[in-house]
């Protein structure tokens, strides 16, 4: 093995080593040609609960790198908390910041030109996808480490009930804070099957994380040991020449889609997996994912699909138990960061709690994870997490109540003017129209209190969202999609049994409306968001930046 730093021109090599030595890296390590330099890309900060533990975990990663004969070099990137950014204009930055994470890791690792491998530490919704994209783009031996989910002391339903009491004016702000701390008991990933835990689990299915690493609880010894082993594993990958392109193959992405389907994971994976495939030079469409999801049964009911948390799933066997249960559907020959194949990793005794993880032939295991809906309102598709939709809403016809922003919907809710039986349409919140494609989780929370209703949007949802929540609608309103033509009082028909979403307005009337349409979006004059709007692709292709 010849290290990257030793491939530099001799004078620059000496100067680069001098700079690194002045930063505290030992001269002996820099002169030892058998000691690979491993980047530790850490997204630690004090704002995001899922990222607060990563400072300590980075120390464990570095111990593992040193023990395996490598030399760690740590740097930081950013990490937003979607929970803090919810419900206001700041949410427009969350999806774009996925690209910043990827680009910053590329700039540091490729730009410095000295690294032989990398460990990426990230825990939350856009950061894990951003780091997976970086690993794919850079293609140096790499693995993912997360903080793991925090322990919960109360059931998800109790946390939701507390929030509902606050919205009804029956709980104080302090009561919400103190009560929520019994659900989010401390630093770590939120305990539900949102995007953060979904993407951690998919990282494991892709082979980019050590077996069991996705759901080991935060702030435990096992979580620290896993971080340490990951550091050592990447040094071994460097010596064996195992790269992300050897691991994240078309077959591995299939395995990730199977896992997404069988656990009823976050809809946001429908953005992140196609974007990852693009970085790998592959193609993954919504229809590809829906085809798998239509045949793979959901075998566990983690919130929002039920009333259990990711800690319950961890105790039941975690991702290895899920993969073992659906092993016959997987491509077992895929390489992983262990240096062994997925099948070899699963070829051991894995304890599985069948009260949490069902068998595929269990009558309760029904293929109802994620659907792509089509119709005149969404000619290029819209997404729904069917496993989180009450059965009595699988067929729904409602009266449109149209809003051109999330804020306008909040205002109407505050005035008490959103009525039962309505189909709330929130548009101009797509990747371009937002700009930034806001996550409308708070809207789905308030709509829970309005009977027989649904939400339809060209924005997106949290993995924790439930109810009849249809989003990611394409084409978005800012691109002139039919959602821009909907008017208050129109009837909208949804039939999940037929993958259908229809605007019950005659075609000639829609053409008349289109003649008067001037698609718009939210105006942002400067900074990141207008640049993002000019460069971003459709949600259907992962909202990736060209």
From TrEMBL:
Key words, A-Z: 2Fe-2S, Amino-acid biosynthesis, Branched-chain amino acid biosynthesis, Iron, Iron-sulfur, Lyase, Metal-binding
Dihydroxy-acid/6-phosphogluconate dehydratase C-terminal domain: residues covered: 356-543
One of the Pfam families matching this protein, by short name: ILV_EDD_C
SUPFAM superfamilies noted in UniProt: IlvD/EDD N-terminal domain-like, LeuD/IlvD-like
GO biological process: branched-chain amino acid biosynthetic process
PROSITE patterns: ILVD_EDD_1
Domain Dihydroxy-acid/6-phosphogluconate dehydratase N-terminal, first and last residues per copy: 35-345
Signal sequence residues: none
Top-level taxon: Bacteria
Family the entry assigns: Belongs to the IlvD/Edd family.
Full protein name: Dihydroxy-acid dehydratase
Organism in which the protein naturally occurs: Enorma phocaeensis
